[in-house]
Amino acid sequence: MLAIVDYQMGNIHSLGNALAFLGCEARVSRDPEVLLAADKLILPGVGAFDAAMRNLREFGLVDVLDEAVRRRGTPVLGVCVGMQIMASRGTENGFSEGLGWIDGAVEVITPTVIGTRVPHVGFNEVRFAAGNNDVVGDFAKPTDFYFVHSYHMVCSDPADRVGAVSYGGQELTAMVRRDNVLGVQFHPEKSQSNGLKLLGAFLRC
Amino acid sequence: MLKKRLIFTLLYCDGGYVLSRNFRLQTVGDLAWLRENYDFDAIAQSIDELVVLDVSRGERDTAAFAEHLKELSASYFLPIAAGGGLRSLEDGYRLLAANADKLVVNSPIIDNPALVRTLAQTFGSQSVVASVDCRKTEAGYRVFIHNGETDSGLDVAAAVSRATELGVGEIYLTAIDKDGTGFGYDGELAVQAAAATRLPIILSGGVGRYQHFCDGLAIEGISGASTANIYNFIVGGLSRARTHIAARDIPMAAWDFNLAALRGTANKEST
Predict the structure, then answer these.
(1) Residues of A in contact with B267 (CB under 8 A)
(2) Does the interface ipTM go beyond 0.90?
(3) Contact criterion met (CB < 8 Å) for B3 and A120
(4) Least CB-CB distance to A204: which of B223, B263, B267?
(5) Which of A147, A86, A94, A80 lies closest to A118, judged by CA?
(6) Alpha-carbon A4 to chain mean position
């Protein structure tokens, strides 16, 4: 059973619809028993880093997710802010501690090309690092995904960054991966067939 | 590189869909009809973004519109902007819970700026789109509100600047005189709007041929090109339009249009 973590951070129906289209009826839940019993987790999220961590704490989910992901090794996919909070810390609206599954900080995008707009919104090309064929084997060439974000994750260990996107003269983190932890900055549920393929691969891997 | 956007705009009116010519509406059919006769699935799978506007002329029922949007969007996986008749923050929550990513506001830019500001602060600038409807007059391009019926008293530059100050994230610019004509976008209007803001602008009104999309996207500051004319781009029309645009060195996102091939491909162990 796949569970989508419901911590009141934005619309989760589109993700549920995408999984249903692929043939996976996900449970949407914040019940610790359901999350611990799940064989896969999706951590969604639209909004700010600090608000996301506050909600996780309020629902008592930080330890539950740590138990599932770190101790039991449940594969997890973070999407957008759900990916960002996997980092050690965030800087949106002041410092806040993240889940710490990926070493690094989430920082505001600082374009070096004058006139570049933040947020970064729209379809943009992601280049994936070699060795992740189980998840991105469908994408031999740089592939377009839909982004909408003002902050991005800066990984302490460059090996954790397995997908990058160019914007405003910067290389932004588009995908992170370490062991059973996978996170994407873009929205696979809003990226047409490219996103469905990635979600399908996560379901199968 | 950030890609340009090809956009389809669906005009919703009292439970069905309509075509518009110079803002006069003509009923085409309901959702089932749209899917059956115009293969709307093929359209939705070949565009970068879908805009759904409630253009019902009487009292608007946002709850019913949201229900409809939810049904419409359940098997479409792309960014969706929805609006028309938004009166409250509550309406905003309703549409976002119905799979919309962005809210489109038009008359409130002029007659309810506090609502626009609240929407932008609550959901973020990237979630609010200002729709600006313009008519060419002897005094230049004037902005009209209330379905194009009321002269706002502002010219296009003033209205676009006001929307920008209110915190919206992009501008959806419609030339009422070109709407539904097939004569092409109003390029001069686009240039004037782009000079008044740094926000991304979507052009609407007038597309009749593939080349019109290219003409619009070639204008500095224009990031999206929309059409609401389902008759012109029936079935594979918009995927061919993408190919036409990309072949003219305009950066367009690419994906495999056959989403149906992916249906039900999740592995059984994980379900």
Answers:
(1) 203-204
(2) yes
(3) no
(4) B267
(5) A147
(6) 12
Catalytic residues of A: 80, 187, 189
Spatial distance between the Cα atoms of B48 and A191, rounded to a whole number of angstroms: 8
**Which residue type does B167 have?**
G
The token duo for B62 is 């946002």
Residues B235-244 pLDDT 10s: 688 999 999 9
**A24 in Cβ contact with B265 (< 8 Å):** no
How far is residue B150's CA from residue A60's CA, in Å, rounded to a whole number?
A: 52
- Check: pTM over 0.80? Answer yes or no: yes
DSSP H or E stretch at residue A204: helix A192-204
Per-residue pLDDT tens for A50-88?
Answer: 999 999 999 999 999 999 999 999 999 999 999 999 999
Q: What are phi and psi of B176, to 5 degrees?
A: -60, -40
φ, ψ for residue B77 (rounded to 5)? -120, 70
Residues present in chain A in total: 205
Q: Which two tokens stand for residue B92?
A: 């905003």
Q: Which of B2, B255, B264 sits opposite A194 (nearest CB)?
A: B255
